[in-house]
Amino acid sequence: MKKIKSGIDPVAERAAARSNLAAAVASAITFKTAAEKYIAANEAGWKNAKHAAQWTATLETYAYPTIGNLQVAHVETSHVVGILEAIWNTKTETASRLRGRIEAVLDWAKVRGYRKTENPARWKGHLDHILPARNKVQKATHHAALDYRNIGEFMAALKAVDGMGARALEFAILCASRSNEVRGATWAEIDEKAGVWIVPAERMKAEREHRVPLSPAALQCSNLYLACLELA
Fold first, then answer.
1. 142 lies in a domain?
2. Are residues 154 and 217 in the same domain?
3. How far apart (Å, rounded) are the C-alpha atoms in residues 114 and 196?
4. Backbone angles phi and psi of 193, in degrees to 5
5. Which residues, other chains included, contact 37 with Cβ-Cβ below 8 Å and sequence gap of 6+?
6. Which range marks the domain in which residue 124 is found?
7. Domains held by the chain: number
8. How many CA atoms lie within 13 A of 58 on its CB side?
9. Does one domain contain both 172 and 129?
10. In whole angstroms, what is the distance from residue 75 CA to residue 114 CA?
């Protein structure tokens, strides 16, 4: 009666409370659930089939033990920093990718209405004030390069080695191609008559068809390599 006298409708008040509770329940998903939903929504657009597996493995190893069961709305900077600090100086590349993945999941969650606050995993203007820059921690190290004067000797030695790996490397060198392009090569991509290897757009980083002229040696190597693939 007091509420009615005060101009408050108890029925409407209870309805509003139920509505607020339903909204809270609907938005109360864990970080792990949010990550799984994000991966499911985006994996169709990822070129590499291993990409989703790498996302899952990284999050399972480093993020889920700390925030996997935490409501995605409650993930804060302290959680993210705690996860990253443990590996930032020892596994810098992994940590950097992990940060980006956590940021992507939390951005997705905000857009979908599962959280309201700023992204605690963002780098610029936030974590860059807490963690040292990656290039300050992980110094670039390059593999030793083969002296160009020794390429003839190397190719002769490589040609004498049996196996799919040797043929793949030989083919990659002869075509100056990326390893993933070589690994995905098929007979249908090789035009023996024209002496051209046509890599379709969907297998190229730039998403444009790539035509590679094949020298006689490269054409012969492609046949040997693809034959090894069939036997594997």
1. no
2. yes
3. 51
4. -65, -45
5. 29, 108
6. 2-137
7. 2
8. 21
9. no
10. 11
